[in-house]
UniProtKB/TrEMBL annotation, chain A:
This is Ribosome biogenesis protein YTM1. GO terms for molecular function: ribonucleoprotein complex binding. Keywords: Nucleus, Repeat, Ribosome biogenesis, rRNA processing, WD repeat. PANTHER family: RIBOSOME BIOGENESIS PROTEIN WDR12 (PTHR19855:SF11), WD40 REPEAT PROTEIN 12, 37 (PTHR19855). Pfam families: NLE, WD40. WD repeats lie at residues 167-207, 216-247, 377-419. GO terms for cellular component: nucleoplasm; PeBoW complex; preribosome, large subunit precursor. GO terms for biological process: chromosome organization; maturation of 5.8S rRNA from tricistronic rRNA transcript (SSU-rRNA, 5.8S rRNA, LSU-rRNA); maturation of LSU-rRNA from tricistronic rRNA transcript (SSU-rRNA, 5.8S rRNA, LSU-rRNA); protein-RNA complex remodeling. Belongs to the WD repeat WDR12/YTM1 family. PROSITE patterns: WD_REPEATS_1, WD_REPEATS_2, WD_REPEATS_REGION. SMART domains: WD40. Residues 13-79 form the NLE domain. Residues 254-285 are annotated as: Disordered.
């Protein structure tokens, strides 16, 4: 021995247990405790559940956050990694452990499904509707490569199907569809049009009708995605023609349609047969040329509908002032961007963008924020085609990818990126949802399994659409904010 | 003692040369039998393919979805598909047997479709078919090619023009401005290489005699030069002065394909005898580098044209080899060539592997056509 005394037993550290959830809060006198430094999450969870602490009737698995990041090592390793001594008092914030997103159902289609939206008590379209929903009447809207929209109830029954090409429907595949209200729907896709539909249901709610109300012309390329804002009647579109469209769903205030882009301008015999019915045809309020390559996605800022964010194959994320149609900010990343979502974030607004390079980039779009990248989420093995925020947490999001999976991310679960990853803050998925029928089998080039659209609803869970001609539902409640379950 | 290897310049490691394609991102399945040719359109939106089943197909490049198909070959395979350069019109060319088809696929907006049709129809005013020249002996001379409508079935599908030559067309190569394209019919002897003028519906035979059987042709990316590869040599001609400029001897026994670097001063050549050769046209008639990476024939070689220092080859061994190939402006400095990735996945069928390769116009992504009936996109 070199004269230093060897401690009998493991080192100990003073911890303070805190939580944001009153139902699992410790009595004031029990919150401080001396614990061995070699314990991990599991032992800490056992300590919390014990008779002298929470005295839970059945054990609740807990996760622990130190400084906003999940504890994934022993306390000792954490202290060493952060250059802290064991004299420190460590604040451990505890939350219920994540619940795996269980598979619930699949709704089968005739063709690839490109997009899904949900109408439920908590969805934004519900808040833009004049009347409330009948209990249990949540609806799922799907758009398919067969050019049809379908409205489903929770049990997987089709309540309504949109008109076919000859009867005022889309003349090519649908790429994006959104609820504007409980009675109004917008859709867009490869026929370069946006169509607005009036939706009604029968008294018994077992059948309904999607009636064409408006056709919008102006784009010269596929429309990859749209977003809607009910109160202002505004629709945003992202197109292959490098442009962003601003449109109104109110027929009376919509400008005249550009005649050279109407179906009647088509010269090929084959397509002339499928001319439209008497649905009103209108043009854009504005078409913005800012991107220098196809625009893949555009969204309203959920906190301020006069602001829009877009991303595209020109590698940029752009901010627009919709009042002036001006591109007020541009952030250039290293890869083509295919999907976008706005996350309320921890203390600020964050943008998540899905890349062709198999990761998700998180950044702060505020003009004042000069640091470009906040975090990178890694794990997908193909293009990230869609992103949706967790409706009940500011830390969660779900992404869909051409690799055939949806992945759930918790922004508190991070690590330092490796040298190969280029360093920075990296997040790994907390859960991976496969297409249920594949049983985890991998497909080359995502053949048959690509996920094209994903949505996350408080009531229904994670709803995803794919090349497997299915809408798949996984229970998603309380995954990243267990206290709300 | 000095190790001679230590005196060689150190090549950068592949990881330092990112980005380049590393994995199959999309599979395109639908062809029956071999896919012989493929091409990404100038916007990167659409992938066109043609194969043994006599069909030309167009796919959504990002998803693998088939958008359009037309059977142009009755019994013949579609040997080649190539897009017309430029984004103001969307026109696809394809060849099956001794017919070249010019297509305005119904995948575009009405304005662009109209423009595209106008580009194809402009030449009808010239009526070159009607003016059959008389030879000295007074016998009617058959025109070297016939430009005509291909019939109502194909016209309704968007196949709007048919140019019939005298022998099977294996290669189509467009001039950057989109008014000229050249075709190669290796078995046609005197008329093996033809140059077609779209705006006049005119076909001309630029060379009366060629020293060997033509394999491939390319227009120079910026100057009025034209390259013709026979089995063993590549000749460059000045089209305006109508004279031979240079003879390049790659040392290959049978050239399958070649491509001109977008800068115009370097060539890559692929050969059935498994060699890939890099030529610096300023340096020598002999190759600057000979690369042997494949165990079977190389069928296609292609430079990236959108700003990345990348090139690729496609081989019957079922793989694609991706190279970093950086050309420096300085005449005294040689190009840096580093193999960075082998892309595997295509199955070998009847001793045939990867038949064609093309690059995305902007991104470091490539697409391949396989004898296994699939096309693949690599990102
Ligand atoms: Mg040089």
């Amino acid at each position: 021995m070199d004269g230093q005394s060897v401690q009998s037993g493991p080192r100990q550290v003073q911890v303070v247990f805190t939580t944001n959830f009153p139902d699992i809060e410790l009595p004031e006198g029990k919150r401080q405790l001396l614990v061995p430094t070699d314990v991990r999450r599991y032992q800490l969870s056992q300590i919390l559940n014990s008779e002298s602490m929470l005295d839970t009737p059945a054990p609740i698995p807990f996760d622990f956050l130190v400084n906003g990041t999940f504890l994934r090592t022993t306390i000792d390793e954490y202290l060493t990694a952060h250059g802290l001594s064991s004299e420190t008092t460590l604040s451990l914030q505890y939350v219920r452990s994540l619940i795996p997103p269980l598979y619930e159902a699949s709704f089968e289609h005739d063709d690839w499904v490109s997009c899904v939206d949900v109408l439920s008590e908590n969805s934004s379209a519900r808040s833009w509707s004049s009347s409330g929903l009948v209990p249990g009447s949540e609806r799922i809207l799907s758009g398919s490569y067969d050019g049809l929209l379908r409205v489903w109830n929770k049990s997987g029954q089709v309540i309504a199907t949109s008109s076919s090409a000859g009867a005022g429907g889309h003349t090519a595949s649908i790429k994006s569809a959104r609820y504007i209200s409980s009675t109004k729907v917008a859709s867009a896709g490869m026929d370069r049009t946006i169509r607005v539909w009036k939706y009604t249901e029968s008294e018994d709610h077992f059948s309904g009708q999607l009636k064409p109300a408006l056709e919008l012309y102006g784009h010269k390329g596929y429309i990859h995605s749209i977003d809607v804002h009910g109160p202002s009647n505004l629709i945003l579109s992202a197109s292959q023609d490098d442009k962003i469209g601003i449109w109104t769903s109110a027929v009376s205030s919509a400008p005249e349609a550009p005649s050279s882009l109407l179906p009647s301008a088509l010269t090929s015999k084959r397509r002339k047969l499928s001319t439209s019915t008497s649905t009103p045809q209108r043009g854009p309020l504005s078409l913005i040329s800012a991107h220098t390559a196809p625009v893949q996605a555009v969204i309203f800022n959920p906190l301020d509908p006069t602001v829009a964010y877009s991303c595209g194959q020109d590698h940029t994320i752009r901010t627009f002032d919709l009042v002036t149609s001006r591109n007020v900010d541009t952030r250039t990343t290293s890869h083509p961007l295919f999907s976008i979502a706005a996350l309320p974030g921890i203390s600020t607004q964050l943008i998540a963008a899905g890349t062709s390079a198999r990761h998700i980039t998180l950044l702060d779009p505020r003009v004042s924020a000069r640091t470009t990248q906040v975090m990178t989420l890694r794990g997908h093995t193909n293009l990230v085609s869609s992103i949706a925020p967790d409706p009940s947490s500011s830390y969660g999001l779900v992404s869909g990818s051409h690799d055939g999976t949806c992945r759930i991310w918790d922004l508190r679960s991070t690590r330092q990126g490796t040298k190969e990853e280029g360093g920075g803050v990296v997040g790994d998925a907390v859960y991976v949802i496969e297409r249920e029928w594949t049983k985890g089998k991998k497909a080359v080039g995502g053949e048959g399994v690509k996920v094209f659209g994903v949505n996350w609803d408080v009531e229904l869970g994670i709803v995803s659409a794919g090349e497997d001609k299915r809408v798949q539902i996984n229970r998603g409640r309380g995954i990243t904010e267990p206290g709300n379950a | 003692n000095i190790d001679p290897a230590s005196l060689l310049p150190k090549l950068p490691r592949p990881e330092e040369l990112k980005p380049f394609p590393t994995a199959c991102s999309t599979l395109f399945r639908g062809h029956e039998g071999r896919v012989r040719s493929l091409a990404l359109d100038p916007s990167g939106t659409w992938l066109a393919s043609g194969g043994d089943d006599g069909t030309v197909r167009i796919w959504e490049a990002s998803t693998g979805r088939q958008l359009w198909s037309s059977k142009v070959g009755d019994d013949e395979a579609v040997d080649v598909v190539r897009w017309r350069p430029g984004r103001e019109a969307v026109i696809l060319s394809a060849a099956a047997g001794d017919d070249i088809y010019l297509i305005v696929p119904p995948i575009q907006d009405p304005e662009t479709e109209k423009k595209s049709q106008d580009v194809l129809d402009a030449g009808f005013g010239y009526a070159t078919n009607a003016t059959q020249t008389l030879t000295a002996s007074g016998i009617r001379k058959e025109p070297v090619a016939r430009w005509a409508r291909p019939g109502s079935r194909l016209e309704e599908e968007g196949v709007l023009l048919k140019v019939s030559v005298r022998s099977t067309v294996k290669v189509i190569s467009w001039h950057r401005r989109g008014d000229f394209f050249s075709t190669v019919s290796p078995t046609a002897q005197r008329s093996a290489v033809a140059i077609h003028t779209l705006s006049k519906h005119l076909t001309q035979i630029p060379f009366r005699r060629l020293p060997g059987i033509p394999q491939a042709v390319q227009f120079h990316p910026s100057r009025p030069l034209f390259f013709v590869a026979t089995q063993r040599t590549i000749r460059s001609y000045d089209l305006q002065k109508q004279e031979l400029v240079k003879i390049i001897q790659p040392g290959a026994r049978w050239i399958s394909s070649f491509d001109v670097h977008p800068g115009g001063d370097n060539l890559i050549v692929g050969s059935y005898d498994r060699r890939l050769l890099w030529h610096d046209l300023d340096l020598s008639a002999r190759p600057y580098k000979t690369l042997r990476f494949h165990s079977k024939a190389i069928r296609a070689v292609k430079f990236h044209k959108g700003g990345f220092p990348l090139f690729a080859d496609a081989s019957d061994d079922g793989s694609l080899q991706i190279f970093h190939g950086k050309v420096v402006g300085d005449m005294m400095e040689n190009a840096t060539i580093v193999p960075v990735k082998v892309l595997k996945g295509h199955k070998v069928r009847s001793a045939l592997g990867v038949m064609d390769v093309d690059w995305h116009p902007k991104e470091p992504w490539c697409a391949s056509a396989g004898a296994d009936g699939t096309c693949r996109m690599w990102m």
